[in-house]
């Protein structure tokens, strides 16, 4: 089980880290293009694709290494560990990309928030944008906020996987 968790967690993390890094650098090199909702949709879709490896890992373990049996708890534990490994790689990758290539990301993000605010929301959005910029300066908040982007997706995939793949008795062929 440990080998499956490590291998699939690393592959998942590598996939999402490469995709996120490439898309963020691309977006920064094309400032005139509107990225907004489409970028978020593509980002979360890439997370789902990367975390689909949780299903593959649990199924492989259950069918090939555990005689076709796995409890909900075991499946969930595997999924959560894979999600944690993948999410940690994502956080580390974003920290590198942010600090090395996009140190002005939060300024541009805040500017975009303000630009797209409705007139009646402008003051509140401006204040919120400033708060986000300040929070991002704190390494603990930076880490927490980045985990909160990806880890819930992994948790949901792990939970669904455990519900689908749990099996108490081996299937007799």
Description:
The chain is mainly alpha-helical. The protein has one domain (2-165). 82% of the residues lie in helices and 0% in strands. It has six helices and no strands. The longest helix is centred in the first third of the chain and has 30 residues, at 36-65. The chain is elongated. The relative contact order is 0.17. The mean pLDDT is 89.
CA-CA gap between termini: 24 Å
User: How many structural domains are formed by the residues?
Assistant: 1
CA radius of gyration is: 19 Å
How many distinct beta strands? 0
- The low-confidence parts are none
Tell me the structural class: mainly alpha
Mean pLDDT: 89
Describe the global form: elongated
Query: What share of the residues does DSSP label as strand, in percent?
Result: under 5%
Percent helix range? over 70%
Main sheet: strands, sense, barrel: none
State the order of secondary-structure elements, H for helix, E for strand. Answer: HHHHHH
Q: What is the number of helices?
A: 6
Distinctive features:
mainly alpha; elongated
Short structural description:
This protein has 173 residues and is mainly α. It is 82% helix and 0% strand. It has one domain (2-165).
């Amino acid at each position: 089980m440990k080998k499956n968790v490590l291998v699939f967690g690393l592959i998942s993390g590598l996939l999402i880290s490469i995709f996120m890094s490439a898309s963020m650098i691309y977006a920064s090199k094309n400032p005139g293009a509107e990225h907004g909702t489409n970028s978020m949709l593509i980002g979360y879709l890439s997370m789902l694709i990367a975390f689909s490896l949780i299903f593959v890992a649990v199924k492989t373990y259950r069918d090939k290494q555990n005689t076709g049996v796995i409890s909900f708890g075991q499946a969930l534990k595997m999924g959560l560990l894979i999600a944690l490994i993948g999410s940690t790689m994502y956080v580390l990758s974003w920290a590198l990309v942010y600090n090395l290539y996009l140190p002005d990301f939060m300024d541009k993000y805040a500017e975009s928030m303000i630009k797209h605010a409705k007139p009646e929301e402008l003051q509140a959005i401006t204040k919120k944008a400033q708060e986000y910029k300040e929070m991002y300066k704190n390494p603990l908040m930076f880490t927490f906020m980045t985990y909160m982007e990806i880890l819930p997706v992994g948790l949901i995939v792990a939970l669904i996987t455990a519900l689908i793949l749990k099996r108490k008795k081996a299937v007799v062929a």
